[in-house]
Amino acid sequence: MPPSPDPSGRSVLVVGATGLVGAETVRQLAADDSVARVVVAARRIPAGLPARVESHVVDFDRLHEHEALFAVDQIFCALGTTIKQAGSQAAFRKVDFEYALNIARLGLKHGARHFLLVSALGANPESSIFYNRVKGELEDALAQLPLEALVIARPSLLVGDRTVLGQPERRGERIGLAVSNLLGFLIPENLKPITASSVARALLSRVPLAKGRELLLSGAMQPART
User: Which sequence spans correspond to the domains of the chain?
Assistant: First the structure.
């Protein structure tokens, strides 16, 4: 029988648990007995959540109605969409910038000290690419908040089984993985595909150590070779 959670341990809110990294983060947190409470906030509840995880359906346009959920020690944000899924650049920005920033602000209001963000490779507020520019603007906006620690992951191509999450396979990811398998020795470490579990593990391992803003690129998140 696994050990019981430490009732004096930390509490964590996960937003974006329906995605690859978010789902893996929930799994790892639920298996960590130093975590007393794991809360998932989502538009729909992911299937297969561990038994001890609290799950809440929320309207991200009305987060003020769910403020009690933000009274946690740490927030893990893997919230995100694509312009194609969102339907427009404005709708994409609403999810990837406005929702994420509002989540961080509510967390601070209710005592959250650490914010962990899944961003994107190429995030840059000066980028000519809209997607990368919004991601970079979010990183900069979060850095202005008085968080004890802001840990940002910029993963390269994510590897994981999207079908178990009810998501369609992404052709670009499949092609990218095939190219990496063939020519991996030529690809810089920060550009090589990385598993969602490695990203989640790297972010969560930095929680006890991070101070201020910390950036994790894919090369630093890859598991050590033996």
Answer: 10-218
